[in-house]
Amino acid sequence: MADNEAPRGGHRLHLFDLDGTLIRGSAAAVEISRQLGLSAEIERLERDFLLRGLAPEEFAVQARELWAELTLEQVTAAFEGAPWLAGIREVWAEIRAAGDHCAVISLSPDFFVERLLDWGVEAAEGSRWPAVPFTGPIHRPGILNAAAKVRIAGELCERFGVRPTDCVAYGDSMSDAALFGIVPETVAVNADHHLVDLATHHYAGADLREAYAMVRRGGAVPPGLRG
What is the pTM of this model? Predict the structure, then answer.
């Protein structure tokens, strides 16, 4: 172990949020809606969710109505055109090379989240949506909320043989607060002040390698990685 790396015990599980975390300043719903020319409509829906307490399942029902004509080609364009942080594949490869584990837990649709499996993450959990193109309605119990992130984290701990005390969580908003409350090391990534106050580390930038370096090295980003 390098002198400037933090001491560690057994295997760890790194849990990543998607919207606002891996995707900087945006979300899967925003990127999908942009492909459909519905940016203003999804902005209003996002505002209702963030500021007016719209439940995740109701958000999904209304988004499903907006996206009635969504195609797989548009999902691909939304995924490929999203403002992803740099270095995501490299971080996940390094985590796995070290014998640790990595997973994404997101409230966003599974048909978008699961595409990250091709980037090297070991698990990608999202809300259960009908397949694209849609032929059926939203199944409300399949839509995740903040509490579900904690439940799924527990299931992933069992799957990978680690404890919650062996986890690191990365997130950006209060939907990650409950998960931040059960793991010992947390990284607020481009987050608002509410989550920053709850986090072990705070990262603002465009490269996941820098945020991961804060975990590996006890909080300091190495000078060579600073953007």
Answer: 0.91
